[in-house]
Amino acid sequence: MSKSKDKYKRPSWDEYFLEVADLVSRRATCIRRRVGAVLVKDKKILATGYNGAPSGLKHCIETGCIRQKLKIPSGQRHELCRGLHAEQNVLLQAALYGISTRGSTLYVTNQPCIICSKMLINAGIKEIVIADGYPDELAKEFLRKAKIKVRTK
User: Fold this and answer.
1) How far apart are the first and last CA of the chain?
2) For the whole model, what pTM was predicted?
3) In this structure, are residues 99 and 41 in contact, taking their beta carbons and an 8 Å threshold?
4) Of the listed 19, 87, 127, 141, which one is catalytic?
């Protein structure tokens, strides 16, 4: 390929939406992991979300991390956290604006945990494209049993 063609090479849709998810993750306020999520249908962005404390509450970058203080390993005891996950926030944003999630694809920087996986199943998500893994085998099993296609890019 010539240099001029390389200069104008367009990203694939997966590359494009995962790059948007990465950009969204930069808004995250979690000290331990920054995650971004983009909900897409028919190549259109429906909603975005990142992990952080609920609206109007202080973020972990201000208060410190409860999970770090208690030495909780990654992938365990999700209820002991000030923040919502990116996947939860993307579903909540869609709900706030009356956007149906049924049949959509989620692009996310990390594999969803079990709690988020259950929500995504019930939200009618048909496919999840992830950039990186996460240590939650039960989540993988639930998504497989729910017949949600999961791809890692």
Assistant:
1) 24
2) 0.91
3) no
4) 87
